[in-house]
């Protein structure tokens, strides 16, 4: 799904654009979905592709919604990220290419051992 910056600005809020397109990070502990405990699906705020199921969400005390798995193998693309002087793995929407957050191998108490650390601004929630 290719759109120009001008097209994205017409359909996204400023905060969504900053995160999804400009790859910025929302301020920790401020996102709408950090403490959401409802059952449902988290979709990409840009293209509405399903990304995470609520049963994979867990409290990681990191300031952003955390998930231990994606909804399907094609939901996201993982890409090495060396920006900001750090070495991380970026999580990108598999459908539109929007920046979602990063994934870390620091969740040993989770079944997958990973923590998908995702910006609330990159998500929409659909309750079941």
Q: Can you characterise this structure?
A:
The protein has 128 residues and is mostly beta strands. It has a single domain (5-127), classed as Peptide methionine sulfoxide reductase (Metal Binding Protein, Guanine Nucleotide Exchange Factor, Chain A, Beta Complex). The chain is built from two helices and nine strands; from the N terminus they run ααβββββββββ. It has helices at 5-11, 14-20; strands at 40-44, 50-53, 57-58, 66-67, 76-81, 88-93, 99-104, 115-118, 123-127. The chain has a six-stranded antiparallel beta sheet, with no helix packed on it.
CATH architecture identity: Beta Complex
Q: Would you count the extended β strands for me?
A: 9
CATH class: Mainly Beta
**Poorly predicted spans:** none
Structural class: mainly beta
* CATH homologous superfamily placement: Peptide methionine sulfoxide reductase
What average pLDDT do the residues reach?
96
Short key terms for the protein model shown above:
128 residues; mainly beta; Metal Binding Protein, Guanine Nucleotide Exchange Factor, Chain A; six-stranded antiparallel β-sheet; three-stranded antiparallel β-sheet; 2 helices; globular
Summarize the structure.
The protein is mostly beta strands and 128 residues long. Helices cover 11% and strands 31% of the residues.
How do the helices and strands line up, and which of them pair or pack?
Blueprint: H1 5-11, H2 14-20, E1 40-44, E2 50-53, E3 57-58, E4 66-67, E5 76-81, E6 88-93, E7 99-104, E8 115-118, E9 123-127
């Amino acid at each position: 799904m290719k759109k120009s910056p001008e097209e994205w600005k017409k359909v996204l809020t400023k905060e969504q654009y900053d995160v999804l397109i400009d790859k910025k990070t929302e301020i920790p502990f401020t996102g709408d979905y950090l403490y959401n405990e409802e059952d449902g699906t988290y979709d990409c705020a840009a293209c509405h592709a399903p990304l995470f199921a609520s049963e994979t969400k867990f409290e990681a005390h990191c300031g952003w919604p955390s998930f231990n798995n994606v909804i399907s193998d094609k939901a996201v693309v993982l890409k090495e990220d060396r920006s900001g002087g750090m070495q991380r793995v970026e999580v990108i929407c598999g459908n539109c290419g929007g920046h979602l957050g990063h994934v870390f191998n620091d969740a040993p108490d989770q079944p997958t051992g990973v923590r998908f650390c995702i910006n609330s601004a990159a998500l929409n929630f659909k309750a079941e």
